[in-house]
Specification:
By secondary structure, this protein is of the alpha/beta class. The chain has one domain: Alpha-Beta Barrel (TIM Barrel), CATH 3.20.20.80. Helix content is 41%, strand content 16%. The chain starts with a strand and ends with a strand. The structure holds 5-hydroxymethyl-3,4-dihydroxypiperidine.
């Protein structure tokens, strides 16, 4: 089936600073918690680090040329806070500022709209040393950083997101410990960090709008669908409860102004301390909502979250491929809340790639994943969900956090030894899709 998209639909690709930039200590950049974490033996697969990554800091011009080749209308990237403010606050590193200045100008010259994310996990180490997101002072440092960037780039960038996936910052950083700063089993702390991130989002949104009222401000949440294991009423109830208690932890404060009552019941003493005024800050009006989605959870009343669904395909991340779950989730959130326009700010798949003798990467499975998911996005739009854009994760193969370079999500292949880039079949397919503005 051929499905057209609205003429102004935004087709893009996404990356994040630590995952692609490299130049971890160049031109005055400060250390981030990810520099510290990846330099700690045993934390990252193969001892990989983001020290060089895709060397985008030096190769950004070539990367913009590749984006043009793909016909991207938009590019979503994040700013490295310690590149701009080496210790997180105070002295500005002008060389860092210049890098983003030039990048943004380069994108605009190529007719590619920049979508900026302020924080995609690389907190300045100096701020972490003072408590990081556990310390409320950090919220004000973040706000100052946001306002500084708006003053510098607000004339050229319209759409700004505060945080990428606050849930992952909190859960993977303070519960599983798989991500920086690597703290384990701090259930209460994890929720407190989550709450502080949301208050920081609210404070920053206010400051950004004060600095430039024309901006559009949003946030990016990781939101996977939750499906019941069967039609059995017990499974249906278990899935509904799992959604309400856990998956609404950011949605509900943002769009209902308080945490879900079931979160209080299920999470009980894990719930964060909330200060007067916090919820109003969090729930201020957003111009758009970014959704990152890759898979779904399947919940059984008796067995909890199922690890393996028989007959399903899985990506290299061990994530089930289930595109219809994306449509269901999008429909659910837009029925449950009064949402602003949605952008799918990340969607994509890690599969093993093989460089063929013809010099190409025939990544059929990734291409198929993207086709299926983009189709479901279009169907969700037909259901009435207001979706304005779609960004593939990722533009380039890159540093996949604790997995290092072992997982490849790119529609452009990166040979890390030579930094040679090759557009994969999925990238060529995506370019055709963008040009035709339709999915087949
Ligand atoms: O690579 C990450 C990205 O940084 C945040 N969202 C999920 C992606 C794939 O794991």
């Amino acid at each position: 089936m051929m499905m057209k998209f609205p003429p102004d639909f935004v087709w893009g690709a996404a990356t994040a600073a630590y995952q692609i930039e490299g130049a971890w200590n160049e031109d005055g950049k400060g250390e981030s918690i990810w520099d510290r974490f990846s330099h700690t033996p045993g934390k990252i697969a193969n001892g990989d680090t983001g020290d060089v990554a895709c060397d985008h800091y030096h190769r950004w011009r070539d990367d913009i040329a590749l984006m043009r080749q793909l016909g991207l209308k938009a590019y979503r990237f994040s700013v490295s806070w310690p590149r701009l403010l080496p210790t997180g606050s105070g002295r500005v590193n002008l060389a860092g500022m210049d890098f983003y200045d030039r990048l943004v100008d380069g994108l605009l010259a190529a007719n590619i709209e920049p979508y900026i994310t302020l924080h995609h996990w690389d907190l300045p180490q100096s701020l972490y040393d003072k408590g990081g997101w556990i310390n409320r002072d950090n919220l004000y440092h973040f706000t100052d950083y946001a306002a500084l960037l708006v003053r510098r780039l607000g004339d050229r960038i319209r759409r700004w997101t505060t945080f990428n996936e606050p849930g992952v910052i909190a859960w993977a950083g303070y519960l599983s410990g798989e991500h920086a700063p690597g703290i384990r089993d701090e259930r209460r702390l994890c929720r407190q960090v989550g709450h502080h991130l949301m208050v920081a989002h609210g404070l920053a949104a206010q400051a950004m709008r004060a600095a430039n009222p024309a901006l559009e401000v949003g946030i990016v949440l990781s939101q996977w669908g939750v499906d019941p294991a069967s039609d059995d009423p017990a499974d249906l109830a278990a899935a509904a409860n799992a959604w309400d208690a856990h998956e609404t932890f950011f949605l509900h404060p943002l769009f209902a102004g308080h945490y879900h009552p079931l979160s209080y019941e299920v999470l009980a003493q894990e719930m964060p301390e909330i200060r007067p005024g916090d919820m109003a800050l969090i729930a201020q009006k957003l111009n758009f909502l970014g959704i990152n989605s890759y898979s779904r959870s399947v919940i059984s009343a008796s067995r909890g979250r199922l690890e393996l669904i028989s007959g399903s395909e899985y990506t290299e991340m061990g994530w089930e491929v289930c595109a219809p779950a994306l449509r269901r989730m999008l429909k659910k959130i837009s029925q449950d809340y009064q949402l602003p326009p949605i952008y799918i700010t990340e969607n994509g798949a890690a599969f093993q790639d093989v460089l063929s003798p013809d010099g190409k990467i025939h990544d059929e499975r990734r291409l198929d994943y993207l086709r299926q998911h983009i189709t479901q996005v279009r169907l969700a739009m037909q259901d009435g969900v207001d979706i304005r854009g779609y960004f593939v994760w990722s533009m380039l193969d890159n540093f996949e956090w604790a997995h290092g370079f072992t997982k490849r999500f790119g529609i452009i292949h990166v040979d890390y030894a030579t930094q040679k880039r090759i557009i994969k079949d999925s990238g060529e397919w995506y370019a055709r899709l963008i040009a035709a503005n339709q999915v087949e």
